[in-house]
Amino acid sequence: MRRPTWTGARSRARAGVTGLTVLAACGLFTIVVSGPAHAAYPGADGLIAFVRHGDIYTINPQSLMPGATVRRLTRDGRDSGPRWSPDGKQLAYLDRGNLWIMRADGSHKRQITSRAPAYTDARPTWSPNGRYLAFVRTGHRSRYGYLTRYDTLTRTFATFSTPYHSESPTVRQIKVTALPTAVAWAWARDATGVSRGSFLIFEGATAPRCPSASYCLDALGFPAQADYRNGFPSAENTTAKPVRLLDPDWYPNDPMFSLSVLTSQARCLARHCSPTGVDLTIGAAPILPGGYQAVYSPSGGYLAYVLGGRSGPVIYLYSPAGTVPLPARALISGTQPDWQPVRPAPV
After folding, report:
1. Can you tell me the distance from the alpha carbon of 156 to that of 150, in angstroms, rounded to the nearest whole number?
2. Among 54, 143, 254, 293, which one is most buried in terms of CB atoms within 10 A?
3. Beta-carbon neighbour count of residue 291 at 10 Å?
């Protein structure tokens, strides 16, 4: 895999949290990834969307003037889960449990679902070609939800499913834990390292069977992004409780579904989870102690993640790549960061 070198990352990850809204300039540098770019979300590193006090904002992490590039996109105090489309022109997000889409500047907001609170939608993620949105739909007071797909062209919905004995068509639907953890979709290499397919990473509830004393992180694979039936889920990792793997995100350049997944580790007791850190490969030791909700930048050279502080959670940036790695830098107060891919203009 073509990815930066992460050696010595643990000792460089610690950084203090200040009470400022927008903090010191980040001084980012350009990372060049060698080899062909087969990225799930190709492009240069653009804006970071994030959530603060129930509203969605964007910020330019390259800014040298703190506060000058923060833009507020929503104003009703009930929004969450912003996720950039692969072309960086749209944001999927959630408003009061319903799925919405808006443009990058916050204009042209369009409601996609309207069944909350009877059914709550959560954790949207785009297919690599930008046509589909996968999300989790959960019935009121249910312990699990169903992995669901929205087609932005036909404006129709479908539920992901797997074969079960002789069922035709398949009716065995993919169940996902109802708790708020992300779903991630990528066009990735499979376990052989050669074939490519459309893979979704999610926290499985019952398929494949997840033991009651464990948490399960699963992958669902299909030959094409348009598929949603008859895929076979595989267990990416099973952890003994109370350790849990949350917030998966794919390494953006030529990922392998079994290796190139960023996760947050947490310790969960009595329905309360405390973050223990961010790891770059499923099941690896955390490199960013206490961090959570981590995402890759589109170039793969940086991470945006969240740390808690006395004045509330703060988004940090970190790059362990190169001979002189960028230490963790506080960017802005907020949660749920997602990094915009920017495609080059046509020549």
Report:
1. 6
2. 293
3. 24
> Strand order of the sheet with strand 303-307?
292-296, 303-307, 314-319, 326-333
N residues, the chain = 347
pLDDT, tens digit, 9 for 90 and up, residues 71-85: 999 999 999 999 999
Cα 8 to Cα 1, 143, 316, 326, 330: the distances in Å are 19, 40, 18, 12, 20
CB distance 320 to 6 below 8 Å = yes
How many whole angstroms separate alpha carbon 216 and alpha carbon 198?
20
Residue 224 CA to residue 128 CA, distance in Å, equals 11
- Distance between CA atoms of 242 and 262, rounded to whole angstroms? 19
Give the pTM.
0.85
Evaluate if residue 238 carries a pLDDT over 80: yes
For residue 38, give the amino acid letter: H
CATH 1.10.10.10 corresponds to the domain 9-342: no
pLDDT at 32 over 50: no
Taking the C-alpha atoms of residue 144 and residue 336, their distance in angstroms, rounded to an integer, is 22
3-state secondary structure of 9: helix
Residue 132 has which token pair?
């589909």
b vs e for 120-159, b when ≥16 Cβ sit within 10 Å of the residue's Cβ?
bbbbbbbbbebbbbbbbbbeeeeebbbbbbbebeeeeeee
Percent of the chain surpassing pLDDT 90? 50
Instruction: Quote the CA–CA distance of 266 and 268 in Å, as a whole number.
Output: 6
pLDDT at 167 over 60: no
User: ∠ at Cα 134 (130, 140), nearest 5°?
Assistant: 150
In angstroms, the CA 321 to CA 30 distance is: 10
Between CA 296 and CA 307, with CA 301 as vertex, the angle to 5 degrees is: 50
